[in-house]
Design goal:
- This is cyclic-guanylate-specific phosphodiesterase.
- It comes from Marinobacter persicus.
- It is found in: Membrane.
- The protein has 287 residues and is α/β, with parallel strands linked by helices.
- 46% of the residues lie in helices and 18% in strands.
- The protein contains eleven helices and nine strands.
- The chain has an eight-stranded mixed beta barrel, surrounded by five helices.
- Helix 7 links the parallel strand 6 and strand 7.
- Helix 3 packs parallel to helix 5.
- The chain is globular and about 50 Å long.
- It starts with a helix and ends in a 12-residue tail after the last helix.
- The structure holds ligand C2E and magnesium ion (3 copies).
- The site of ligand C2E has 22 residues, from strand 2, helix 3 and strand 6.
Length: 287
Protein backbone atom coordinates (compact mmCIF):
# COMPACT_ATOMS: atom_id res chain seq x y z
CA UNK A 1 0.00 0.00 0.00
CA UNK A 2 2.74 2.33 0.96
CA UNK A 3 4.32 1.56 -2.38
CA UNK A 4 1.07 2.20 -4.25
CA UNK A 5 0.59 5.41 -2.41
CA UNK A 6 4.13 6.47 -3.24
CA UNK A 7 3.62 5.64 -6.86
CA UNK A 8 0.34 7.54 -7.03
CA UNK A 9 1.93 10.58 -5.50
CA UNK A 10 4.75 10.34 -7.97
CA UNK A 11 2.34 9.97 -10.88
CA UNK A 12 0.27 12.87 -9.66
CA UNK A 13 3.37 15.02 -9.48
CA UNK A 14 4.56 14.17 -12.98
CA UNK A 15 1.07 14.65 -14.37
CA UNK A 16 1.03 18.10 -12.81
CA UNK A 17 4.35 18.90 -14.39
CA UNK A 18 3.22 17.51 -17.71
CA UNK A 19 0.07 19.57 -17.62
CA UNK A 20 2.06 22.74 -17.20
CA UNK A 21 4.42 21.75 -19.98
CA UNK A 22 1.52 20.75 -22.23
CA UNK A 23 -0.10 24.13 -21.68
CA UNK A 24 3.18 25.83 -22.50
CA UNK A 25 3.58 23.85 -25.70
CA UNK A 26 -0.01 24.50 -26.61
CA UNK A 27 0.29 28.24 -26.11
CA UNK A 28 3.53 28.17 -28.04
CA UNK A 29 1.77 26.43 -30.94
CA UNK A 30 -1.23 28.79 -30.75
CA UNK A 31 1.15 31.74 -30.98
CA UNK A 32 1.81 30.63 -34.56
CA UNK A 33 -1.69 31.67 -35.54
CA UNK A 34 -2.28 34.53 -33.15
CA UNK A 35 -0.99 37.16 -35.53
CA UNK A 36 -2.73 35.87 -38.65
CA UNK A 37 -5.98 35.48 -36.68
CA UNK A 38 -5.64 39.00 -35.34
CA UNK A 39 -5.87 37.88 -31.71
CA UNK A 40 -3.65 40.53 -30.15
CA UNK A 41 -5.02 43.78 -28.79
CA UNK A 42 -3.45 46.83 -27.21
CA UNK A 43 -4.72 48.18 -23.92
CA UNK A 44 -3.73 51.68 -22.90
CA UNK A 45 -2.75 52.97 -19.47
CA UNK A 46 -2.68 56.75 -19.02
CA UNK A 47 0.17 58.70 -17.45
CA UNK A 48 -0.93 61.63 -15.31
CA UNK A 49 1.09 64.83 -15.63
CA UNK A 50 1.56 65.91 -12.03
CA UNK A 51 2.25 69.54 -12.88
CA UNK A 52 -1.19 70.17 -14.38
CA UNK A 53 -3.32 67.06 -13.86
CA UNK A 54 -3.50 66.37 -17.59
CA UNK A 55 -3.03 63.17 -19.57
CA UNK A 56 -0.82 63.56 -22.59
CA UNK A 57 0.71 60.13 -22.79
CA UNK A 58 -0.44 56.53 -22.54
CA UNK A 59 1.44 53.24 -22.45
CA UNK A 60 0.33 50.52 -24.86
CA UNK A 61 0.29 47.08 -23.20
CA UNK A 62 -0.33 43.99 -25.28
CA UNK A 63 -3.04 41.43 -24.51
CA UNK A 64 -3.78 38.16 -26.28
CA UNK A 65 -7.44 37.39 -26.83
CA UNK A 66 -6.94 33.64 -26.82
CA UNK A 67 -9.78 31.68 -28.48
CA UNK A 68 -10.10 29.26 -25.54
CA UNK A 69 -8.22 30.75 -22.61
CA UNK A 70 -9.59 34.29 -22.71
CA UNK A 71 -7.61 37.48 -22.31
CA UNK A 72 -3.97 36.71 -21.54
CA UNK A 73 -1.50 39.16 -19.99
CA UNK A 74 1.93 39.53 -21.60
CA UNK A 75 3.62 37.54 -18.84
CA UNK A 76 1.86 34.42 -20.18
CA UNK A 77 3.21 34.63 -23.72
CA UNK A 78 5.92 37.28 -24.24
CA UNK A 79 8.62 35.01 -22.72
CA UNK A 80 7.49 32.19 -25.06
CA UNK A 81 7.57 34.55 -28.01
CA UNK A 82 11.08 35.62 -27.05
CA UNK A 83 12.29 32.02 -26.89
CA UNK A 84 10.88 31.14 -30.29
CA UNK A 85 11.91 34.37 -31.99
CA UNK A 86 8.32 35.34 -32.76
CA UNK A 87 8.78 38.41 -30.60
CA UNK A 88 10.05 40.35 -33.59
CA UNK A 89 6.84 39.87 -35.57
CA UNK A 90 4.76 40.64 -32.49
CA UNK A 91 6.80 43.79 -31.88
CA UNK A 92 6.16 44.95 -35.41
CA UNK A 93 2.48 44.35 -34.93
CA UNK A 94 2.56 46.38 -31.69
CA UNK A 95 4.27 49.34 -33.35
CA UNK A 96 1.86 49.28 -36.28
CA UNK A 97 -1.19 48.95 -34.04
CA UNK A 98 0.01 51.88 -31.92
CA UNK A 99 0.53 53.97 -35.07
CA UNK A 100 -2.92 53.02 -36.37
CA UNK A 101 -4.37 54.16 -33.05
CA UNK A 102 -2.50 57.45 -33.24
CA UNK A 103 -3.88 57.91 -36.76
CA UNK A 104 -7.43 57.25 -35.51
CA UNK A 105 -6.98 59.89 -32.80
CA UNK A 106 -6.09 62.56 -35.35
CA UNK A 107 -8.63 65.34 -35.51
CA UNK A 108 -10.22 64.16 -32.25
CA UNK A 109 -9.84 65.56 -28.72
CA UNK A 110 -7.17 62.87 -28.22
CA UNK A 111 -4.94 64.06 -31.05
CA UNK A 112 -2.15 65.20 -28.70
CA UNK A 113 -1.77 61.87 -26.91
CA UNK A 114 1.63 60.26 -27.13
CA UNK A 115 1.80 56.45 -27.15
CA UNK A 116 4.60 54.48 -25.52
CA UNK A 117 5.32 50.94 -26.72
CA UNK A 118 7.44 48.32 -24.98
CA UNK A 119 10.30 46.70 -26.85
CA UNK A 120 12.42 43.87 -25.51
CA UNK A 121 16.17 43.74 -25.93
CA UNK A 122 15.75 40.97 -28.51
CA UNK A 123 13.70 43.29 -30.67
CA UNK A 124 16.41 45.91 -30.50
CA UNK A 125 18.90 43.31 -31.77
CA UNK A 126 17.04 43.28 -35.08
CA UNK A 127 18.77 45.59 -37.53
CA UNK A 128 15.59 46.27 -39.47
CA UNK A 129 13.68 47.49 -36.40
CA UNK A 130 14.28 51.17 -37.01
CA UNK A 131 13.22 50.94 -40.65
CA UNK A 132 10.05 49.08 -39.72
CA UNK A 133 9.16 51.74 -37.15
CA UNK A 134 9.87 54.51 -39.63
CA UNK A 135 7.65 52.74 -42.14
CA UNK A 136 4.81 52.25 -39.64
CA UNK A 137 4.88 55.96 -38.78
CA UNK A 138 4.95 56.97 -42.43
CA UNK A 139 2.24 54.51 -43.47
CA UNK A 140 -0.11 56.01 -40.89
CA UNK A 141 0.94 59.62 -41.29
CA UNK A 142 2.02 59.81 -37.66
CA UNK A 143 4.64 62.21 -36.30
CA UNK A 144 7.59 60.37 -34.72
CA UNK A 145 7.31 62.63 -31.67
CA UNK A 146 3.94 60.96 -30.93
CA UNK A 147 5.70 57.67 -30.35
CA UNK A 148 7.78 56.64 -27.38
CA UNK A 149 9.77 53.45 -26.95
CA UNK A 150 10.22 51.82 -23.53
CA UNK A 151 13.26 49.65 -22.98
CA UNK A 152 14.60 48.00 -19.85
CA UNK A 153 18.14 48.33 -18.54
CA UNK A 154 19.08 44.91 -19.98
CA UNK A 155 19.93 46.63 -23.24
CA UNK A 156 22.84 48.40 -21.56
CA UNK A 157 24.53 45.17 -20.51
CA UNK A 158 25.15 43.38 -23.80
CA UNK A 159 25.59 44.50 -27.38
CA UNK A 160 26.12 48.00 -26.07
CA UNK A 161 27.57 49.47 -29.21
CA UNK A 162 24.84 48.06 -31.42
CA UNK A 163 22.12 49.17 -29.02
CA UNK A 164 23.56 52.66 -28.71
CA UNK A 165 23.50 52.90 -32.47
CA UNK A 166 19.87 51.68 -32.62
CA UNK A 167 18.77 54.16 -29.95
CA UNK A 168 20.55 57.02 -31.65
CA UNK A 169 18.78 56.19 -34.90
CA UNK A 170 15.40 56.08 -33.13
CA UNK A 171 16.15 59.35 -31.35
CA UNK A 172 17.20 60.97 -34.61
CA UNK A 173 13.86 60.01 -36.11
CA UNK A 174 12.28 62.04 -33.30
CA UNK A 175 11.02 59.12 -31.21
CA UNK A 176 11.18 59.54 -27.42
CA UNK A 177 13.10 56.97 -25.41
CA UNK A 178 12.14 55.77 -21.94
CA UNK A 179 13.94 53.44 -19.56
CA UNK A 180 11.38 51.07 -18.07
CA UNK A 181 11.56 49.50 -14.59
CA UNK A 182 14.40 51.82 -13.67
CA UNK A 183 16.44 50.83 -10.64
CA UNK A 184 16.03 47.06 -10.66
CA UNK A 185 18.41 46.17 -13.49
CA UNK A 186 22.06 45.30 -13.31
CA UNK A 187 23.44 48.01 -15.51
CA UNK A 188 25.63 50.93 -14.55
CA UNK A 189 24.57 54.56 -14.51
CA UNK A 190 27.04 55.36 -17.25
CA UNK A 191 24.39 54.75 -19.87
CA UNK A 192 22.49 57.81 -18.69
CA UNK A 193 25.49 59.73 -19.90
CA UNK A 194 26.09 57.77 -23.09
CA UNK A 195 22.58 57.05 -24.34
CA UNK A 196 19.98 59.59 -25.48
CA UNK A 197 17.36 58.97 -22.78
CA UNK A 198 14.26 61.20 -22.44
CA UNK A 199 12.43 59.49 -19.59
CA UNK A 200 13.04 57.28 -16.60
CA UNK A 201 10.24 55.13 -15.27
CA UNK A 202 10.86 54.35 -11.60
CA UNK A 203 10.06 50.70 -10.98
CA UNK A 204 6.90 49.90 -9.06
CA UNK A 205 8.89 48.11 -6.35
CA UNK A 206 10.19 51.50 -5.10
CA UNK A 207 6.81 53.20 -5.29
CA UNK A 208 4.79 50.55 -3.43
CA UNK A 209 6.27 51.46 -0.02
CA UNK A 210 7.42 54.99 -0.78
CA UNK A 211 5.17 56.58 1.86
CA UNK A 212 6.22 54.37 4.77
CA UNK A 213 9.69 53.06 3.99
CA UNK A 214 12.51 55.50 4.44
CA UNK A 215 14.91 53.77 2.02
CA UNK A 216 12.38 53.66 -0.82
CA UNK A 217 11.58 57.33 -0.26
CA UNK A 218 15.27 58.25 -0.33
CA UNK A 219 15.89 56.26 -3.52
CA UNK A 220 12.82 57.70 -5.24
CA UNK A 221 13.81 61.28 -4.38
CA UNK A 222 17.38 60.63 -5.49
CA UNK A 223 16.28 59.18 -8.83
CA UNK A 224 14.02 62.16 -9.46
CA UNK A 225 16.86 64.59 -8.69
CA UNK A 226 19.41 62.64 -10.70
CA UNK A 227 17.13 62.53 -13.72
CA UNK A 228 16.15 66.17 -13.52
CA UNK A 229 19.78 67.25 -13.23
CA UNK A 230 20.45 65.30 -16.43
CA UNK A 231 17.47 66.87 -18.18
CA UNK A 232 15.47 63.63 -18.05
CA UNK A 233 11.80 63.43 -17.06
CA UNK A 234 10.50 60.93 -14.52
CA UNK A 235 7.45 58.68 -14.49
CA UNK A 236 6.50 56.73 -11.36
CA UNK A 237 5.10 53.25 -12.08
CA UNK A 238 2.53 51.37 -10.03
CA UNK A 239 0.93 54.31 -8.24
CA UNK A 240 -1.97 52.88 -6.28
CA UNK A 241 -2.68 55.35 -3.45
CA UNK A 242 -3.33 59.06 -2.96
CA UNK A 243 -0.46 59.09 -0.46
CA UNK A 244 1.98 57.92 -3.13
CA UNK A 245 0.61 60.47 -5.57
CA UNK A 246 1.05 63.28 -3.03
CA UNK A 247 4.60 62.17 -2.25
CA UNK A 248 5.49 62.16 -5.94
CA UNK A 249 3.86 65.52 -6.57
CA UNK A 250 5.64 66.99 -3.56
CA UNK A 251 8.99 65.76 -4.89
CA UNK A 252 8.39 67.09 -8.40
CA UNK A 253 8.03 63.76 -10.17
CA UNK A 254 6.76 64.61 -13.66
CA UNK A 255 4.22 61.86 -14.21
CA UNK A 256 2.40 59.08 -12.41
CA UNK A 257 1.07 55.84 -13.83
CA UNK A 258 -0.84 53.19 -11.94
CA UNK A 259 -4.14 51.66 -10.92
CA UNK A 260 -5.04 54.78 -8.88
CA UNK A 261 -5.33 56.73 -12.10
CA UNK A 262 -6.48 53.87 -14.30
CA UNK A 263 -5.79 50.26 -15.14
CA UNK A 264 -4.74 49.50 -18.71
CA UNK A 265 -8.01 49.70 -20.68
CA UNK A 266 -9.22 49.35 -24.29
CA UNK A 267 -8.97 52.57 -26.34
CA UNK A 268 -12.75 53.14 -26.35
CA UNK A 269 -12.80 53.04 -22.54
CA UNK A 270 -9.84 55.41 -22.41
CA UNK A 271 -11.65 57.87 -24.66
CA UNK A 272 -14.76 57.69 -22.48
CA UNK A 273 -12.77 58.22 -19.29
CA UNK A 274 -10.92 61.18 -20.81
CA UNK A 275 -14.15 62.65 -22.12
CA UNK A 276 -15.77 62.44 -18.70
CA UNK A 277 -12.68 64.00 -17.14
CA UNK A 278 -12.30 60.94 -14.92
CA UNK A 279 -8.54 60.73 -15.25
CA UNK A 280 -7.52 64.30 -14.56
CA UNK A 281 -7.98 64.28 -10.80
CA UNK A 282 -6.54 60.91 -10.00
CA UNK A 283 -9.93 59.25 -9.63
CA UNK A 284 -9.67 55.58 -10.70
CA UNK A 285 -11.23 55.11 -14.11
CA UNK A 286 -11.89 51.43 -13.94
CA UNK A 287 -11.87 50.30 -10.34
P1 LIG B 1 5.80 47.23 -17.91
O1 LIG B 1 6.13 47.81 -19.22
O2 LIG B 1 6.64 47.64 -16.76
O3 LIG B 1 4.26 47.56 -17.68
C1 LIG B 1 3.69 47.83 -16.45
C2 LIG B 1 2.93 46.63 -15.91
O4 LIG B 1 2.47 46.93 -14.60
C3 LIG B 1 1.68 46.29 -16.71
O5 LIG B 1 1.48 44.89 -16.63
C4 LIG B 1 0.60 47.02 -15.93
O6 LIG B 1 -0.69 46.44 -16.09
C5 LIG B 1 1.08 46.86 -14.54
N1 LIG B 1 0.63 47.95 -13.67
C6 LIG B 1 0.37 49.23 -14.01
N2 LIG B 1 -0.01 49.96 -12.95
C7 LIG B 1 -0.01 49.12 -11.90
C8 LIG B 1 -0.33 49.28 -10.50
O7 LIG B 1 -0.69 50.36 -10.02
N3 LIG B 1 -0.19 48.18 -9.71
C9 LIG B 1 0.21 46.98 -10.21
N4 LIG B 1 0.29 45.95 -9.37
N5 LIG B 1 0.52 46.79 -11.51
C10 LIG B 1 0.41 47.85 -12.34
P2 LIG B 1 1.22 44.01 -17.93
O8 LIG B 1 0.29 44.72 -18.86
O9 LIG B 1 0.84 42.64 -17.46
O10 LIG B 1 2.63 43.96 -18.63
C11 LIG B 1 3.72 43.32 -18.02
C12 LIG B 1 4.99 43.52 -18.81
O11 LIG B 1 4.91 42.90 -20.09
C13 LIG B 1 5.28 44.99 -19.12
O12 LIG B 1 5.84 45.63 -17.99
C14 LIG B 1 6.23 44.86 -20.27
O13 LIG B 1 7.53 44.61 -19.81
C15 LIG B 1 5.71 43.62 -20.99
N6 LIG B 1 4.92 44.04 -22.16
C16 LIG B 1 3.67 44.56 -22.21
N7 LIG B 1 3.31 44.84 -23.47
C17 LIG B 1 4.38 44.51 -24.26
C18 LIG B 1 4.63 44.58 -25.66
O14 LIG B 1 3.81 45.04 -26.47
N8 LIG B 1 5.85 44.12 -26.09
C19 LIG B 1 6.79 43.65 -25.22
N9 LIG B 1 7.98 43.23 -25.72
N10 LIG B 1 6.59 43.58 -23.91
C20 LIG B 1 5.40 44.01 -23.42
MG1 LIG C 1 6.57 49.58 -19.96
MG1 LIG D 1 7.66 49.03 -16.11
MG1 LIG E 1 7.78 45.68 -15.79
Amino acid sequence: RAKDHGRNTYQFYTEGMQEKEVMRLELDKDLDHALENDEFVLYYQPQLDLSNGEIHSVEALIRWQHPRRGLLAPGAFIPLAEESGRINDIGRWVVRAACRQLARWKGTPYRNLRVAVNLSGLELDDDSLVDSIRYALHENGVAPSSLEVELTEEIFIQNIEHNLNQLSRLRKLGIHLAIDDFGVGYSSLAYLRDFPVDLLKIDRSFITHVTHRHDDAVITRAVINLAHNLGIQVVAEGVETEGQLNFLRHHSCNMAQGFLISRPIPPQDLEKALEKGLLTTGVPANS
